[in-house]
Design a protein that fits this description.
two-stranded antiparallel sheet, 13% strand
Length: 323
C-alpha cells in the first residue's frame, strides 16, 4: 500500500482559495474549542482572524442579534467564544453574579378574592441553599405592616407558614390583571425588612442543634436513667444502645407500657429487662442526628420575588392606619 499526496493545479487553487478557506475554518474552530496542530502551517491559535469592529460593538450595544449570524470572512464569533470572553471579563468582579441575580427582587401585585387582608408575600433564598423560604407580612389598607406585642415588645407581624405565603401569592388565573399602586410599591421595602429580619432570626435558631432535639416525656427519661444506672449487665454496647433508643418520642401505647413497668414494683434489674423487651418488641430506634445547618450572614439572605396582594373585599376587622 502506498500513500500519495496531491495538490490542485495552481490556477484551480487560486480560484477556489482552498488553503485560505481551510485556515479560516480552523481559526473559527480554534476560537470555539481549540484544535491544536491540524495541518502544516496552522499551530493552535495562530492565524486567528477574529476581531471586533467599532460598528459591530455598537450593533451589539443596540441589541442587534444579526451581527452574531454574519460570516464576513471569518469575523463572526462563535457563541462559545462570547461566553469565554464574558467569563474572562467577569471572573475578577461580582458582575457575573449580579447578572445571574438580575431577577432577584422583582415584584408585582394583584387583587385577590382568596384573602381578607392586604399584605406582601415574599420568596427568598438563604445562602447557597436551594430550597427557598417564604414569608407573608399582613398590612393595613395603607400598606403599613401590622404589629403584635411579643415579650412586652412591639414587633411587625410576620407569618412563617409557607402555605399561607404561597396561597396569598397565587392569583388563581393567568388572566388576572396587574394591580400595584405607588403606596403598595413603597410599602414593600418596610415589609421586606421585617421579613428579612424574621428569616435571619429563624435561621440563627435553626443552626443550634438543640432546636431539633425531641422533647422526651417523663416516663422515657426515667427509664433511660434507670438503664444508665442499672443496665450494665446488658453489656456496654447494648446498654448504650437502649439508653439512646429511649431518647425518642414513641407512641402513647409504648409510653404507657414503660410507665407500667416503672410503677410495677420491680427490682431495677428486672425493670431494665422488661424495658429492653418493650423496646425490642416495638422496634424503638435511635433518633437520627439533628441536621447540620450552616450559619449565614444576613447579607446572604436575598429576596427573589415578592407580590403585593389587595383583597377584593375589605376586611372589616382590619385596623386602619392613623397616619
Amino acid at each position: 500500500m502506498f500513500l500519495d499526496c496531491f495538490f490542485p493545479a495552481a490556477h484551480l487553487d487560486k480560484l477556489l482559495k482552498l488553503e485560505e478557506r481551510l485556515h479560516g475554518k480552523l481559526a473559527r474552530a480554534d476560537a470555539a474549542i481549540g484544535v491544536g496542530e491540524v495541518i502544516p502551517g496552522f499551530d493552535g491559535s495562530e492565524g486567528r482572524s477574529f476581531y471586533d469592529k467599532k460598528d459591530q460593538l455598537q450593533r451589539l450595544r443596540d441589541e442587534d442579534i444579526t451581527v452574531l449570524l454574519e460570516e464576513g470572512g471569518g469575523n463572526a464569533l462563535s457563541g462559545e467564544e462570547y461566553r469565554h470572553r464574558l467569563r474572562k471579563a467577569t471572573e475578577t468582579s461580582t458582575l457575573g453574579r449580579d447578572v445571574q441575580n438580575l431577577p432577584y427582587g422583582s415584584g408585582s401585585g394583584f387583587v385577590s378574592t382568596a384573602v381578607r387582608t392586604h399584605g406582601y408575600s415574599f420568596c427568598a433564598r438563604v445562602g447557597n441553599n436551594e430550597k427557598p423560604v417564604f414569608r407573608f407580612v399582613p398590612t393595613d389598607e395603607t400598606w403599613n405592616p401590622l404589629t403584635v406585642v411579643v415579650n412586652n415588645e412591639t414587633v411587625v407581624k410576620v407569618n412563617r407558614q409557607t402555605l399561607t405565603a404561597l396561597s396569598a401569592a397565587d392569583p388563581g388565573a393567568e388572566s388576572v390583571e396587574r394591580h400595584l399602586t405607588d403606596d403598595a410599591y413603597q410599602g414593600a421595602f418596610a415589609a421586606w425588612d421585617a421579613a428579612h429580619h424574621d428569616i435571619a432570626t429563624e435561621w440563627k435558631e435553626l443552626t443550634d442543634p438543640a432546636a431539633f432535639a425531641p422533647v422526651i416525656r417523663k416516663a422515657l427519661r426515667t427509664a433511660a436513667n434507670l438503664v444508665a444506672d442499672y443496665g450494665a449487665f446488658l453489656g456496654q454496647q447494648e446498654q448504650d444502645s437502649l439508653f439512646q433508643r429511649l431518647h425518642t418520642v414513641p407512641s402513647r401505647r409504648v409510653e404507657t407500657a414503660i410507665r407500667e413497668v416503672l410503677n410495677g414494683g420491680h427490682t431495677p434489674r428486672e425493670a431494665v429487662k422488661q424495658i429492653a423487651t418493650i423496646a425490642d418488641a416495638e422496634n424503638l430506634q435511635v433518633p437520627p442526628p439533628p441536621p447540620i445547618i450552616e450559619s449565614v450572614h444576613p447579607a446572604e439572605i436575598n429576596l427573589v420575588a415578592w407580590m403585593a396582594i389587595t383583597p377584593s373585599t375589605p376586611n372589616p376587622d382590619s385596623p386602619r392606619s392613623t397616619q
